[in-house]
């Protein structure tokens, strides 16, 4: 196995890109992501990483460069946050529709104005319909491991979709934790070199890619625009199965499992479970342990993959629960938390389903303490006793 160091979440992402033997990196600096790319540029300058670093004038150009490199057959990597991700928006659609298996580290940061560099998940969740797979991680080790796993999934011929690995600003990005760095040889045995579906340099067999297509099949084209979008959708659905397979293979080889689409913790005999994404999922387990000691039948669910959405897994894991607490570090303005909306949609087909309590909290990096998650869970037990659900969504910790 590899060596263990103490390092930040951002450096963990950089070490993962190095271990994956990325060929091309294109990125633009933005707080709190910048140190990822700074570390990668240091690796390249010292000759420790054989990759081409492309300096660009914006995040939009960074993603354009990654798409071009990926289509040309290179394993590509980039990283961004917040407004940088928003500036990429057009090219995110291009990357997914081009079926370019780009992997990107997204350090979740609040959107302005007013300006705020701390964490919430609106920046990445705003991109949920672009076609990118989305992973949300709870530790620096999971950042490293998930980037490696994401390349395996994204580059699989049955998937061929890009992936973003999302980590909380400062809570993980600038916080030091133990990290086991796998050697490039170990990783290559798990993650072989990328094999593109075609060779654009083969002048004897030219191809066109991402060109104009009619609404209906026409001429020599067997498919129209709608069929291309259906194939993207199928790629995402195939990723559900591939993620599970690759997580098991990673665990067998390296001994670590952070969950596949979801991770469940002490849920089997629980009456209430709390659902979290990102770093809050780690804290939720701690709260569950404390409350279990006091006799509460409570568990935790980490929503690790948001796209493709684990609807079947959510339905299965919530069977037998009386209430579900969904802690959202985001808001869909005018409605409620984004993951709560998706979870309720998944549960709708169940004849008997748990009550869903949605708490919008931690927006813009506002601190969420263990006692806060405990109060959310206690509120669910109170509602079970009274049978009265007065609010489906509540802003927790709002100062008024």
What does the secondary structure layout of this molecule look like, with pairings?
Layout: E1 3-8, H1 9-19, E2 24-27, H2 34-45, E3 52-55, H3 59-71, E4 76-80, H4 82-87, H5 89-97, E5 103-108, H6 122-125, E6 133-136, H7 140-155, E7 163-168, E8 176-181, H8 184-190, H9 225-254, E9 262-265, E10 272-276, H10 280-293, E11 298-303, E12 305-307, H11 311-317, E13 323-328, H12 338-347, E14 355-360, H13 370-386, E15 393-395
Parallel strand pairs: 2-3, 2-4, 4-5, 5-7, 6-7, 10-11, 10-13, 13-14, 14-15
Antiparallel strand pairs: 1-8, 6-12, 9-11
Q: Which tags fit this structure?
A:
400 residues, Rossmann fold, 7-stranded mixed β-sheet, 15 strands
How does this model look, in words?
By secondary structure, this protein is an alpha/beta fold. The chain has helices at residues 9-19, 34-45, 59-71, 82-87, 89-97, 122-125, 140-155, 184-190, 225-254, 280-293, 311-317, 338-347, 370-386; strands spanning 3-8, 24-27, 52-55, 76-80, 103-108, 133-136, 163-168, 176-181, 262-265, 272-276, 298-303, 305-307, 323-328, 355-360, 393-395. The chain contains 13 helices and 15 strands. The strands form three sheets. Strands 3-2-4-5-7-6-12 form a seven-stranded mixed sheet, sandwiched between helices. α3 (59-71) runs parallel beside α5 and α10 packs across α13 (370-386). It starts with a strand and ends in a 5-residue tail after the last strand. 49% of the residues are buried. The model has no long low-confidence stretch (mean pLDDT 96).
């Amino acid at each position: 196995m590899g060596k263990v160091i103490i390092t930040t979440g951002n450096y963990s992402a950089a070490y993962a890109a190095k271990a994956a033997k990325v060929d091309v990196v294109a990125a633009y600096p933005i707080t709190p992501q910048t140190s990822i790319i700074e570390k990668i540029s240091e690796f390249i300058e010292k000759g420790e990483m054989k990759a081409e670093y492309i300096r660009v004038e914006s995040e939009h150009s960074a993603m354009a460069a990654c798409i071009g490199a990926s289509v040309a057959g290179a394993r590509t990597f980039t990283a961004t946050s917040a407004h940088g991700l928003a500036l990429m928006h057009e090219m995110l659609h291009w990357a997914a529709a081009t079926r370019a298996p780009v992997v990107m580290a997204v350090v979740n940061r609040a959107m302005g104005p007013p300006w705020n560099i701390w964490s919430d998940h609106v920046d990445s969740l705003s991109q949920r319909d672009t076609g990118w797979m989305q992973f949300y991680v709870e530790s620096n080790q999971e950042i490293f491991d998930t980037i490696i796993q994401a390349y395996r999934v994204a580059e699989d011929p049955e998937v061929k979709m890009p992936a973003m690995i999302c980590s909380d600003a400062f809570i993980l990005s600038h916080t030091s934790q133990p990290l086991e760095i796998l050697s490039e040889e170990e990783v290559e045995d798990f993650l072989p070199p990328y094999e593109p579906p075609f060779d654009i340099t083969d002048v004897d067999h030219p191809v066109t890619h991402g060109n104009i297509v009619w609404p209906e099949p026409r001429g020599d084209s067997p498919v129209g625009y709608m069929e291309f979008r259906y194939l993207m959708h199928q790629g995402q659905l195939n990723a559900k199965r591939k993620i599970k397979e690759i997580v098991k293979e990673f665990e067998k080889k390296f001994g670590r499992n952070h969950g596949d689409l979801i991770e469940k913790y002490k849920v089997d005999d629980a009456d209430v479970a709390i659902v979290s994404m990102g770093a809050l999922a780690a804290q939720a387990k701690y709260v569950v342990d404390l409350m279990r000691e006091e006799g509460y039948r409570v568990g935790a669910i980490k929503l690790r993959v948001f796209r493709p959405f684990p609807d079947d897994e959510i339905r299965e894991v919530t069977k037998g629960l009386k209430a579900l607490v969904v802690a959202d570090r985001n808001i869909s303005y005018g409605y409620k938390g984004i993951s709560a909306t998706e979870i309720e949609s998944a549960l709708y087909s169940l004849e008997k389903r748990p009550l869903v309590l949605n708490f919008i909290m931690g927006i813009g990096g506002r601190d969420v303490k263990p006692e806060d998650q405990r109060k959310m869970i206690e509120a669910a037990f109170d509602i079970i006793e009274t049978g009265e659900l007065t609010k489906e969504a509540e802003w927790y910790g709002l100062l008024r």
